[in-house]
Write a structure and sequence with these properties.
By secondary structure, the chain is an alpha/beta fold. It has three domains: about 130 residues, Immunoglobulins (Immunoglobulin-like, Sandwich), CATH 2.60.40; about 180 residues, Rossmann fold (3-Layer(aba) Sandwich); about 40 residues, no CATH class. About 30% of the residues lie in helices and about 30% in strands. The chain is built from nine helices and 18 strands. Strands 14-13-12-15-16-17 form a six-stranded mixed sheet, with helices on both faces. The protein has a five-stranded mixed sheet with strand order 2-8-7-4-5. It has a three-stranded antiparallel sheet with strand order 1-3-6, with no helix packed on it. Helix 1 runs antiparallel to helix 2, helix 4 packs antiparallel against helix 5 and helix 6 packs parallel to helix 7.
């Protein structure tokens, strides 16, 4: 940078000296006319060289800071400067983090599930403005098809110069903006046959978890509560919307287990589907009157017990940032978590890797009188005869297995059927 500054400075001075010498030795109207015609340009070039664009104030505003994967935000870049120095042009460039170099087309991204690299991209955004004497100027642009995760936009590069291209200046401004993109929530339907409750009570559907005949108390209304649960007398008395709280049936304890361990041949798109379905299951259970616990197993194990709406937000934020990590097999890590699985009646496992070791681990869970539902997600082209054999074996020993490929994931509604 310093070398370029010195080089340009010497070049302009030499050009000035050449014209001045020509006017002095040649004399005449034409020579001095050329010299004085160049003088304003010379002065502008010198002033531009010493003009500090790094003193500008650059800010970025996002239309939203929390969105769902596949959505878009409008980004507004504002520039303020104290001295209205004339500038012919300015090129603004947003420096995107690596986390944004992916595209999320929602269910359409699964059309190329056998090619996970299809979601990779290189985001670029450049804008040219002609500020001239303006003290303040702005520009906006849309940031579309945003991928899941927590993203930090921190740098804006500005370049400017003179008309002739003799002087070029650039500076990278630090302006930090945080953007949280939560997983895309899929429409999910889970069909199960009627089952008897654990303690010999009357039969009920697996997703109808609330005993809505016996109210055990009241509480404040939360998103997802049914309209029929509202206690109108207490609502009028407290001047707040209050809902009835019911006794929860014993057989409804549910645990979602997300396989977030890394393995060779890992399919990124298949993993995205497991994350989306995890959040969709959480909301599906909540809308039907219960709360499911969440356990993610990878290099780190994270457990979120079934609680009220506040805990759901913690689950959602965790699912926004979870990525496959570690080098230890998921089946071994799952065995280490056996003690934590004692209180759950229904266990739903979401994975993208079904091997014999995991098959044996699931069989051990089943022998402990657990209801286990395995959701295996993989590209249809990548399914092996070993996968088909493992699925057949688990189904034969009365373990519910749902195989989801791009055929199911590209639909608007995903149906998960369990025996």
């Amino acid at each position: 940078m310093k070398f370029r500054f010195i080089r340009n400075f010497i070049f302009i001075i030499l050009l000035f000296l050449v014209l001045f010498s020509f006017a002095m030795f040649q004399g005449g109207f034409t020579s001095w006319f050329l010299f004085f015609s160049f003088l304003p340009i010379f002065l502008y070039q010198i002033a531009l060289m010493f003009y500090p664009i790094k003193m500008w104030k650059v800010t970025r505003e996002l239309s939203k800071q929390m969105i769902e994967a596949g959505d878009q935000v409008i980004v507004k870049i504002s520039i303020r400067r104290k001295v209205p120095f004339p500038l012919y042009y300015c090129i603004f460039e947003e420096i995107f983090p690596e986390t944004l170099n992916k595209l999320d087309l929602r269910q359409d991204k699964y059309k190329q599930m056998n090619n996970p690299n299809s979601i990779n991209t290189v985001r670029q955004k450049k804008k040219i403005l002609f500020p001239w004497f303006k003290r303040e100027f702005t520009f906006t642009y849309p940031l579309t098809h945003l991928p899941r995760g927590e993203h930090v936009l921190s740098e804006v590069r500005i370049r400017t110069g003179d008309v002739f291209g003799l002087i070029k200046k650039d500076h990278t401004f630090q302006t930090v903006s945080h953007l949280t993109v939560f997983p895309y929530q899929r429409k999910l339907r889970m069909d199960e046959q009627a089952r008897n409750l654990e303690q010999g009570v009357t039969s009920s559907q697996a997703l109808n978890f609330k005993n809505t005949n016996v109210a055990s108390g009241i509480r404040e209304y939360m998103p997802g509560d049914r309209f029929s649960w509202i206690d109108w007398k207490q609502t009028a008395r407290k001047n707040e919307v209050m809902t009835k709280e019911f006794e929860q049936e014993k057989s409804t304890d549910t645990l979602l287990i997300l396989d977030s361990s890394y393995y060779p041949g890992f399919n990124e798109l298949a993993f995205e589907a497991t994350v989306e379905l995890s959040l969709s299951f959480i909301d599906l259970f909540r809308k039907n009157g219960t709360y499911a616990s969440l356990l993610t197993i990878g290099e780190e194990t994270n457990f979120f017990p079934a609680k009220r709406f506040v805990q759901r937000e913690a689950m959602e934020r965790h699912l926004a940032t979870v990525h496959p990590t570690g080098n230890k097999a998921f089946s071994l890590l799952l065995k280490e978590e056996f003690m934590r699985l004692n209180s759950q009646h229904l266990i739903i496992i979401l994975t993208t890797n079904l091997d014999e070791s995991l098959q044996e681990t699931i069989k051990q869970l089943k022998m402990r009188k657990k209801r286990v539902h395995l959701i295996y997600i993989q590209a249809k082209q990548d399914l092996t005869p070993a996968d088909q054999a493992n699925i057949k074996h688990l189904t034969h020993i009365n373990i519910a297995v749902s195989l989801l490929t791009e055929e199911q994931l590209t639909k608007d509604r995903i149906e998960v059927k369990s025996r």
